[in-house]
C-alpha cells in the first residue's frame, strides 16, 4: 500500500446535523495534499477524526498502516500536528517548549536535544531559544509550532493554515520548509483557505463542501477541467462605468479589484478587441490588458459553490 492516509465512508453528526457525510480518500506517501473548503464544510471534523481527536460515528481510518480506531496511541505517533492556533506555552522558552513536546512523544533525551537544536536552526529560532515564547512574534510562534510538530520525526505532518496572518518573510520561510520536508520524504496534509498557497505547494487538492468530497485532483487538472472559464484582465488610466463593461458583447461577468477589471468570457480574443474598441470610442486609455486562464480559485467556486 503506497498511501499514508486512507479513510473510508467517514460519517459524523452533531445534533442531527451531518458534519461529515461519507468521506473517503487516500493521501499518497511523500505528497503535499491540500484540503480546501468553505467554513463549515467539514474540514476540521475530518482532520480531527484522522488524527484520533474525535471518533467517527462510522467508517475506517488508517494512518501509515495503523488503524486509528483500533490502535489510536500507535497511530498518533505517526503524526505531527501544527494547529492554526498556537499550542505553545508563553511562560516557557522556545527550547523548553520543544523539549517538553519531545518528552510527550517519548523521544530519548539525547535524540530530542540533537533534533531540537537542528530544528531551531532550520526555522531560524536558535538565537531566541532561551527567550520566553510570550515575547515571540506571530511568525516566530508559527515556526516554533512547526518545529514542535517535527520533534518526534513523524512521517505525516498536519498543517492548519500554516501561513495565515504572517509577514512576507515568515510566509516565505515556512513555504520553503514545506518544500524541504517534501524533498525529505515527509507527507504533508495542508488545510488552508489560502488558495494561492495550495496552488503553489500542493501535488493534489481535495475540495470538500457540506461534508462531502466534491473533487480530488491536481491543481492543474482542476483548472484544466474548466477551460471554458477564461477571462480578460484590463486596467484603465481612469475607470469607466461598470455597466458599460457589462454591456459589451460576449461578456458573462465583470469583477472589479481596485484599478483593474476581470471580465469573464468564452471569447477572450474577441473581448480584448471589443475592449480596445470601447476604449478608443469612449476616450478611455488602456494601460494593461491580458488573457487569463481559469484559476484554482475559479475551480474552488465551481466545485464547492462557495467563494469563501
Question: What is the gist of this entry?
Answer:
This protein is an alpha/beta fold and 308 residues long.
List the helices and strands and how they pair.
Layout: E1 3-14, E2 17-28, E3 32-36, H1 43-50, E4 58-63, E5 66-67, H2 72-76, E6 79-82, H3 94-104, H4 109-122, H5 138-150, E7 156-160, H6 168-183, E8 187-191, H7 195-201, E9 204-209, E10 212-217, H8 219-224, E11 230-236, H9 242-246, E12 251-257, E13 260-265, H10 268-282, E14 286-292, H11 296-304
Parallel strand pairs: 3-8, 3-9, 6-7, 7-8
Antiparallel strand pairs: 1-2, 1-4, 4-5, 9-10, 11-13, 11-14, 12-13
Helix pairs in contact: 3-4, 3-5
List keywords for this structure.
35% helix, Alpha-Beta Plaits, globular, 2 domains, alpha/beta, Rossmann fold
How would you characterize the overall build of this protein?
The chain is of the alpha/beta class. The protein has two domains: 3-223, P-loop containing nucleotide triphosphate hydrolases (Rossmann fold, 3-Layer(aba) Sandwich), CATH 3.40.50.300; 230-292, Alpha-Beta Plaits (2-Layer Sandwich). It has helices at residues 43-50, 72-76, 94-104, 109-122, 138-150, 168-183, 195-201, 219-224, 242-246, 268-282, 296-304, and strands at 3-14, 17-28, 32-36, 58-63, 66-67, 79-82, 156-160, 187-191, 204-209, 212-217, 230-236, 251-257, 260-265, 286-292. It has a six-stranded mixed beta sheet, sandwiched between helices. A four-stranded antiparallel beta sheet has the order 2-1-4-5.
